[in-house]
Amino acid sequence: MLKAVDYASDQDVRWCPGCGDYSILKQVQSVLADLSAQKENTVFISGIGCSSRFPYYLNTYGMHGIHGRATAIAAGLKSVRRDLDVWVITGDGDGLSIGIGHLLHLLRRNIRLKVLLFNNEIYGLTKGQYSPTTPENHRTKSSPMGVIDHPFNPVALALGADATFVARSVDRDPIHLRETLKSAHEHNGTALIEIYQNCNVFNDGAFFSFTDKDKKAHNTVQMIPGQPLTFGENNENVLVRDKNKLRVEKTSECSSPMIHDPEDLNQAWMLSRLFETPSDKMDLPRPFGVFYREERPCYEDRLQEQVDEAQQKKGTPNLDELLRGDTWWEVH
Q1: How many CB atoms lie within 10 A of CB 84?
Q2: pLDDT above 90 covers what percent of the chain?
Q3: Average pLDDT of the chain?
């Protein structure tokens, strides 16, 4: 029986002291141990960024790719090696800026792998420029007068790309993060988890409204399948579906609370829209858990079916014949 420490490499972990990446690494190692993952069949692929050092710190196979291309590399690997357990490590800069095209195509193709998108709402590796998820008006080194770009909503973006599994967790809730990772691992298709990760050097406190003990209960709602979407210190508030919008009622006075159903795409979309600049006076809470999941054929399985069919029709392929092709002509 392997333990979490058995999945740790011999490399010194070189993140800033206090970085949320430490917690995420620990939970991933713990989940691998719980799953009894075979190290020789497990692969972590990353792009560029603080999060992308991940493969160095795991005693598995891995690849540190180039900026934004981790999803493309992982898609190619999984397409031809269906037996491997492939994980993608990316960030809000790596995955949602230069790499957004690859990410969207991965989601629509539904290749069987896990995408962990570390979102700290800042470029940490390059020292504090604003990223595609930085809130409007936020002052950074590259936006001294405040960000004027509208930020990406990663969950809504994934739903719009017809992803078959979309979830959100946070670095400071290890139990919730482990359970979310396990749910993603069980999914038969592309599973994307947005993980709120605190950058204590360049964007400290970005998610404290959702992690501090005095604020968490009022500002977050845990999405538990089959359970009403309640929140508050004593679950005194509940979300209610009002046509295509959500509103809050007192749990004790509510006759029709919203019951979480991760297979309801319309509900997932409404919950994904609970996305506003963090504050102490939020009207609606931020959801955490699995927004949506569905079963759909995986790309690599359908690809293999086509390969098998072609071989049955034409027998064992001949490379020379393939290169020569069926069409030829003479030039006079």
Answers
A1: 18
A2: 88
A3: 94
Dihedrals phi, psi of 325, to nearest 5 degrees? 80, 175
Residue range 173-204, pLDDT digits in tens? 999 999 999 999 999 999 999 999 999 999 99
Low pLDDT (below 70) residues in the chain: 277-282, 317
Cα 140 to Cα 2, 120, 127, 128, 288: the distances in Å are 43, 13, 10, 6, 27
Cβ partners under 8 Å of residue 175, min gap 6: none
Beta bridge partners of 245: 242
Q: pLDDT digits over 61-96, tens only?
A: 999 999 999 999 999 999 999 999 999 999 999 999
Question: Do the strands 191-196 and 286-293 form a parallel or antiparallel pair, or are they unpaired?
Answer: unpaired
3-class DSSP state for residue 302?
helix
Residue type, 246: L
Q: Which residues contact 40 (CB under 8 A, 6 or more apart)?
A: 60, 61
Specify the pTM: 0.93
* Helix and strand totals (H; E) in the chain: 11, 11
Structure-token pair, residue 164: 């078959």
φ/ψ bin of 128: left (φ > 0), alpha (ψ from -120 to 50), beta (otherwise): left
Helix (H, G, I), strand (E, B) or coil at 217: helix
Domains of the chain: 4-206 (3.40.50.970)
Nearest Cα residue to 298 out of 159, 110, 153: 110
Amino acid at 60: T
